[in-house]
Amino acid sequence: MSIWMTNLHGIKGTAGLAQAISMDIGRKIGIKEIALYCNHYNDSDEVLNARLDGICSGIEGNDVVILQLPSWSGTRYEKRLTERIKYRMPSAHIVIFIHDIEPFMFGNWDDLDQWMPIYNQAEAMIVPTHFMAEYLRGHDCKCPKYVCHYAWDNPSELNELKDSIMQMNRLVQFPSGPSKFKILNSWPSKEVRLHYYSKDKSDNFNLIRHNPMPNQDLILQMHDLGGYGIMWEPPEKLLYWSMNTSMKFGAYMSAGLPVILHKGIAQQELVEKYHLGKAVGSIAEAIDFVKNTDADEYVEMAKNVNKIGNLTRSGYFIRQALIKVVDEALKR
User: Fold this and answer.
1) Cα gap 242→264, rounded to integer Å
2) Rounded CA gap, 31 and 26, in Å?
3) With the C-alpha atoms ordered 290, 294, 295, 296, is the resulting torsion angle positive or negative?
4) DSSP string, 233-262
5) What is the pLDDT of residues 272-312, one digit of tens each?
6) Could you give the CA distance from residue 222 to residue 243 in angstroms, rounded to a whole number?
7) 64-69: strand order across its sheet
8) Which among 3, 167, 245, 315 is least buried, having the fewest CB atoms inside 10 angstroms?
9) Residues 94-149: tens digit of each pLDDT
10) Phi, psi of 294 (to 5 degrees)
11) Which residues are paired to 173 by β-bridges?
């Protein structure tokens, strides 16, 4: 019996990074890769079946196949992928690792029905939170077993990250740009500057732009610069982010940054339970928190973050989810 996991190639940004990180962690516990390439071809059914049969040719009886979804190739592709696995090897165990739910990302909540034929093929799922599991159950998802991973890991062996940040800098960091996150363009504080990482330029003089950089360089740069990481979503996206988990959280933990997050975001419970930062209801409240937190409290938060960072840097959250979900899939 072998364990396989899909890994998406040919896509840039956070989506590709999340899959690559998960696959790297999976390899260390013996999971084999099924390489997928982001497929936007309008293949006929016969051509698509042949393509998928080749991709899945190594799967044998009773193997566990973990599908990292979405594959960003459309529901037709993903539905056909699950069908071909079961057609070729009916005894294979299908597990789905949900990274995102496309209809929720783009506000098309009613389109979730299109994904249910895919999700209902799974014997077990990895989901970010219990809230997402309950939401799917409440919308006719027949998958019987769910495992939560809670946070995205951002593995690193850099020695510079092992010590917690000991100096408080009154600034905020954000690893994306103003064309995607409009909140940056309206950041109001000259005293608490927001540092962002993107090619996108902004006319907001309260922002400080840094060029984008490879993930490990970014983590080290954020650690060296210090201050806080921020997680912020507009009101219309808060329901989704109350059940999903952003890779920014794992990046901030690995970099050692205390976090300021919009109230309602899924990681609020972790942040409050372990004193990793502050959940706030407005940008004004966020700025006030940065301006008025004293150095001793900041250092205490940074030490707490470093404890969680030891986990995200080691791949703990994804590793434990992969091990547990395979066990669940194989239980009778």
Assistant:
1) 6
2) 5
3) negative
4) --GGGHHHHTTS--HHHHHHHHHT--EEEE
5) 999 999 999 999 999 999 999 999 999 999 999 999 999 99
6) 26
7) 32-37, 3-9, 64-69, 93-98, 124-127, 146-148
8) 167
9) 999 999 998 888 888 889 999 999 999 999 999 999 999 999 999 999 999 999 99
10) -85, 165
11) 195, 229
